Amino acid sequence: MSSVIDPRLLTQSGAQALGRGDFAVARALFEQIVATGRADGPVFLGLAVAARGQGDAAAMLAALDRLLAIDPRHLRGLMMKADHFAAAGDARAAAAFCRQALKVWPEPARLPPELAAELRRAQAMSDAYAADYERHLLGAVGPVAEGPGGERFRESVELMLGRKRIYLQEPRHYYFPGLPQIQFYGREPFPWLAGLEAAAPAIRGELEALLRDGAAFTPYLKSQSDRPFDDGHGMRDNSDWSALYLWRDGERVDEVADRCPATMASMAGLPLCGIAGRTPSVLFSRLAPGARIPPHNGFINTRLIGHLPLIVPGGCGFRVGNETREWREGKAWLFDDTIEHEAWNDSGEDRIILIFDVWRPELSEAERDMVASLFAAVDAYGGGPAAWGV
User: Fold this and answer.
1) 65-77 as b/e: b if 16+ CB within 10 A
2) Can you list the domains of the chain with their CATH numbers?
3) 284-324, pLDDT tens digit by residue?
């Protein structure tokens, strides 16, 4: 009479044999179950442990592959493969299995204690491999990256190592394709920057006269009764971030502009972004003591935003994408505001800068006209110019 194999009983017997350290018996029992075609995850795990105990790496890996085919998230299976490759000196393979364990089991607090310990071990191994890999890579390419012309390559290495995030243009309303993803622009495309900076003392003088006379700064983001309310990341109708316009929505604000001839003259030679009813905007932007403008993205990527810092106490900063800078009074920069950016004033005084918008240098005159005509068509529909995006 032929005996009937009971996989459940054989699995129990195999586990008992593993507990005694009798790897040969355990392996034989688990292989019997495999031969029936009725093996499950625990059987392949037991077989892998038994084969490892016998020093049979090939059989262990074969059993682990079967286990992970059944359950790709099996934490012990992933870590046994990580340990195998670590012992074999294959750091990249070991790190890959540690990272996978961390990816599929992100919260050790929800695991039983023994599995939580495995996940902490995966994190420690992954961190150690990452640090070793970074040392190796920077040792090999660091001198090249730090050399002349290596700025973009250096950033690519930092992105590869996870030191930086990939930030891309994410305009809230209009995206013009094919434009370079640059956070802060260099000075070379803007020969007029030097002239603007030379005018900074006169511009500051005009600003100070306005402040002495109690010029009315108003919240940069204001509610519109003809549009749904959104809180603008908490800045809507918030005077912590306020503005005094010389040019607003493509229209000159005479009562302010007339008092700022030097400021207006400094703008005359700039390629200001001209979209009827919308741009340019030229304004003094005030950030109150202790205020912070949360991370956000601008509306259209066909323009760049310029800053000319005028009154900047210590403790003020500005981030675009991965790069954080401090304003320096009288030193201008241009950036892409459709890349996530934020600002803060950790001082006890107001920070005030001049803000303006210019066409991106990559756009041809014909393309600029096309963009302007597009928004003319938008604004001709159903009521005329409104806020971006509506």
Assistant:
1) ebbbeeeeebbbb
2) 7-132 (1.25.40.10), 193-379 (2.60.120.330)
3) 999 999 999 999 999 999 999 999 999 999 999 999 999 99
